[in-house]
Amino acid sequence: MKRNAILFSKVVFTILLLTSLSLESKAKFKRHNDFKYMIKDGKKILTKYIGNKKRVNLRKDAFWNDLYEITDNSFIKNLKIEFISIPNSVEKISSHAFYDCKNLRKVILPENLRYIGSAAFGNCSSLKLKKLPNKIEFIGEYAFWNCKNNRISELPHKLSFANYSCFTSNNKLKNLTIGSNIKAIKTLSFEKNEALKTIIFKEGCKIIGFNAFIGCKNLKKIVFPNSLLWIKYQAFYNCESLEEVNLPKSIKLIDPEAFGKCSNLKIVNCFMLNPPDIKRFEIVFPKNIVLHIKKSKNSEIKKRYINKGWNKYKIVEDL
Length: 319
What we know:
Blueprint (H helix, E strand, L loop, with lengths): L1 H27 L1 E3 L2 E6 L2 E7 L5 E3 L9 E4 L12 E3 L6 E2 L12 E3 L6 E2 L21 E2 L21 E2 L12 E4 L5 E2 L12 E4 L5 E2 L12 E3 L6 E2 L12 E4 L5 E2 L12 E4 L19 E4 L6 H8 L6 E4 L2
Parallel strand pairs: 3-5, 4-6, 5-7, 6-8, 7-9, 9-10, 11-13, 12-14, 13-15, 14-16, 15-17, 17-19, 18-20, 20-21, 21-22
Antiparallel strand pairs: 1-2, 2-3
């Protein structure tokens, strides 16, 4: 009986504590015009837009000059908004902040922006971004998923990886430069970017992830970096406009179907002196490709390719 009483008192105390914390949290929320906001750890955070205007210019209101964050779900599914200008003080746009704002066409992003959360601009199908601020260090999963009109051509210099499906179906993106600080392109990062024609990797990237560029049907040119170590499963699957690929000498691993269903791929120039083992893979490239490898005394390099299973393709020693 005593034990039950103690347990009951603990439960009541916990409920009271949580209620107290909840009330304390609610007490922090304030309102300014069409916005709710709060001060957390001395920083001003926009928590909710409750207006119905098509154009929102936070830079014109001095009240927002010290705004630090636009938090989760602040504008989510707002079908009125078409334009927003965000003050340069903002460093963080959190998860789903503008998710499914289908009529949002133009966003003026802050110069000091460092963080874009998961699906922050996901399914903003009218959005036409041309450039991202260079100070961005993190872009979350699905951040720009299905932003069909985005034209971003270069990833921010401080970004260290392209996250899961962050630029899927950005159908106006034609030419892409991937900077030297990018170490990995993750799963589905640029899936189904059907207008993409050129990818240029600067030195630095080591891994191109599963399905990273799957379905980029108009991709014609890839410049790989000498830092590249691993091309994962179906990374360039169904990139049917690719005709020629140069694989740098740095590559240690290539997964099955890395270039599967690249129906027009005819030439693969292999600069690896010690190629990765592909004996256990049925398909890496289309069957009718020609491998061009470096000449060597007594065809020593060619023997290495044969021993690693590359003889399923035609091998020519002429590099």
